[in-house]
């Protein structure tokens, strides 16, 4: 039988547990080469002046890659990290190493798809297929009860039908990888290579996000089992301060250090061993929102990035760079909005309640182009996820999947409800921190 030599292209599934591409490649190939590619274009400043991927997400990515490399090394394999364009590097590796199949996850983002198509085109010349697997949602794309172009327009309809019609698939695990050292081991770039100065931890942060599968598992262990916080999640999830009010799984989910199915299984175990209540259900409910946006991104493609949104609805706004800059740096003079924006600026994280309020303020009070706000979140959020970010923004701006036409977050009433004693605002505004820290010199890594 012909030897199967596979290239395993890691992207946003930086884990060993429940990784279908790893499972499939390991089952079929006599040689598996795990690869990750850092594209410098993803770290360059865009037209608004800040990098597409900012400090916090870059740092989290590097930690996650380091962790994955070390886990693979424990299985006598390795992770080969290259810097460049995937559409150059993958065909080159395929040719040099006589690879016979490339394994990768299916994408929904238009940039990611463009890269994938470019690679497919090149690999056709060598007769090498890309085997694509759907990963990183709770429900598999093949199990949703509609063709993608018939995905319901509202989350409620999506949720009700999927809960009735579909079930969550089993997870994958592997015991070994067929790997031989055929090329030299590579180093993972440092944060300085991206032009960032390492920032000191800001002690006011909600949680210290550290990348990698082990850290994701530890957070799950802490949130569910040690602190027993899952039983009250529904009541606390809209709070603003500290590590305990919500799971903080988002950054690990975004890079795939943990899969939503692993979290789901653990919720089910918790329901059996501790308690089953509205809160345990609600965490799954939120994971369904994440699924919904991922499927909606698949359905609507490039429209999710457009100012008129997926509804092609006129969004009257200005491109007021001065207002935007004040908003971005947390200097508009409305304490609640500024406090949230400072949290994002200094830590790369913001609560869901905060995100809704600051997004609404930019889009609905300031009437500034919401896509600029989404671009800043893309740069700054440690948990940036293409579909969750752009479709949440579109939703709040009134051009997304919101069945309500007139949703508006009134800052005054939000403060009365969520920060009545000003604790959150004081936490972030009682400081003299220089907001220009974490600057980026726009260095090109090579
Ligand atoms: C304007 C705006 C932008 C956002 N951008 C992102 C983003 O880039 N990446 C991201 O992961 N989330 C994004 N969210 C959704 C949400 O704010 C975060 O997922 C959540 O705050 C992360 O904290 P957590 O993990 O503690 O959430 P928890 O409350 O513990 O929720 C558990 C998980 O459910 C998912 N989830 C919860 N709420 C949502 C939601 N509204 N949409 C999609 N998934 C959700 C997340 O994966 C989250 O980790 C955005 C929301 C808004 C309003």
TrEMBL record:
Physiological role: May have a photoreceptor function.
Swiss-Prot/TrEMBL GO biological process terms: photoreactive repair
Binding site for FAD: 233, 246-250, 286-293, 383-385
Photolyase/cryptochrome alpha/beta domain segment(s): 4-138
Any Pfam family the entry gives: FAD_binding_7
The protein's required cofactors: FAD; (6R)-5,10-methylene-5,6,7,8-tetrahydrofolate
Entry similarity comment: Belongs to the DNA photolyase class-1 family.
Gene Ontology MF annotations: deoxyribodipyrimidine photo-lyase activity; DNA binding; FAD binding
Name recorded for this polypeptide: Cryptochrome DASH
